[in-house]
Write a structure and sequence with these properties.
Layout lengths: L1 H19 L5 H23 L8 H19 L3 H7 L3 H8 L1
Helix pairs in contact: 1-2, 3-5
Keywords: Fatty acid biosynthesis, Fatty acid metabolism, Lipid biosynthesis, Lipid metabolism, Membrane, Transferase, Transmembrane, Transmembrane helix
Subcellular location: Membrane
Membrane topology: Multi-pass membrane protein
């Protein structure tokens, strides 16, 4: 469980540095924070919380991704749909962080 998280963190960091030439954009920072917090929480749960709570992080992360990509899918349906789903954009960003 930790190795894939660590690989995602390294990939996000390398992509941010490579694409942004050491100048992080808000999107690159959001992605980096997302992977970093996942790694940190998994380590904390594995060390201090009993009962397999470290496995809770992965389904939670998957749920956030399902919500994100559903939003992106709906946004491709045009301006009429974008008007309807636009109010939840801030909620999704907060959920990602």
């Amino acid at each position: 469980l930790l190795l894939p998280k660590l690989a995602n963190l390294v990939e996000a960091t390398v992509n941010a540095l490579w694409k942004e030439h050491i100048r992080f954009s808000s999107r690159a920072c959001l992605r980096h924070d997302h992977h970093m917090s996942g790694e940190v929480f998994v380590r904390i749960y594995r060390k201090y919380v009993a009962g397999g709570m470290s496995t809770f992080i992965t389904p939670l992360n998957c749920s956030v991704h399902v919500i994100m990509y559903t939003y992106y899918l709906l946004a491709t349906f045009g301006p009429a749909v974008q008007k309807v789903i636009n109010p939840i954009k801030l909620f999704i960003t907060i959920l990602q962080v």
